[in-house]
């Protein structure tokens, strides 16, 4: 398979003065997006999609039946709330929930095995925004645009739809967007008279000060395990340092920017600001350390706000502040967040197509998207994302205009191997088993092999 050098429109604002949710995949750099093509901020009414006409339009308005929905929420009661509201509105359709692993990679491996084995369930599944190319290519997802009317896609911004498109067809309906933020202990910053940091250097020094003075056990926790989440964290430091994973379609990690990014990550560990065990932390472990009151700072996605305020599981309710991710000193006033998020995919072997489509339609309706927003998950439909009442649900929504975004190069079916080349090598450098420069050199050549199809293949 030849390397993809195409630039993808990576970003789209859901146009509003207050809200700029981005989505899509690719390598771009313009406006406030990293790595390649132009940031698009269309006015709500001018958004249009280039979705092809459906070939097998399904009328699901009177659907009945029973479907299984594989859900991957790592947080709270939101999945149950959604299903209860759906079944109330559509009593002729029963939805059984199937809880998936919280790691996106394990989740993907599980769904790949199940669906490629021909199973008709789950009928509908949540899948990462980085999966459309791979899942479409491997026929693990049905082209939703074959069944849904073209008008269906107008509820989303154009970029979100593009991010879910492969070879002209749309394979997933955007469910919620994920943006990363810096969570901090506002009580501790106050106590030690320290400002909310805007640079990574400040995060490190403030964390060190507070730990030294006995304010917290750990300074800063994040995702350093050998998995997709580490690619997200690394890409943010890399974009902050002025670099990108690919330049003109080729790996560009043999660069001073990549060296700066990874050296900084490693220094967080060697300086004692971040615990050594961070090289095994995914989102739940890092979040747990923070909500148990053991860390000053946490890098995590938008839902971590809700979790930090949940009195049954968090010891830091009322003590948490949230801000845009910082950047390196001299690189602006805030940093990059990886574009994350989850979509709804349709199993090509489903036996209940009409009920599945009704479910997907409702999950991207204002009612469902308000439920998501109330759980600090970022809505994907313009009607809710642009709503002036959004900010009442979570402080993260008001921060969006400050955030810069970097997309992962996931518009290729080889993306899992590209990402693995990053997270395997970065993880080894974090553990101290290879030097920063060796890790980057290895990642660079493995990314190029993965892109040319000569790597270890999809996962
Ligand atoms: C979040 C993001 C997803 C990303 C994952 C990495 O779930 O939404 O896009 O791949 O984290 O752990």
From TrEMBL:
GO terms for cellular component: ATP-binding cassette (ABC) transporter complex, substrate-binding subunit-containing. Residues 1-23 form the signal peptide. GO terms for molecular function: maltose binding. Keywords: Signal, Transport. GO terms for biological process: maltodextrin transmembrane transport; maltose transport. Pfam families: SBP_bac_1. SUPFAM superfamilies: Periplasmic binding protein-like II (SSF53850). Gene3D superfamilies: Periplasmic binding protein-like II (3.40.190.10). Belongs to the bacterial solute-binding protein 1 family. This is ABC transporter substrate-binding protein.
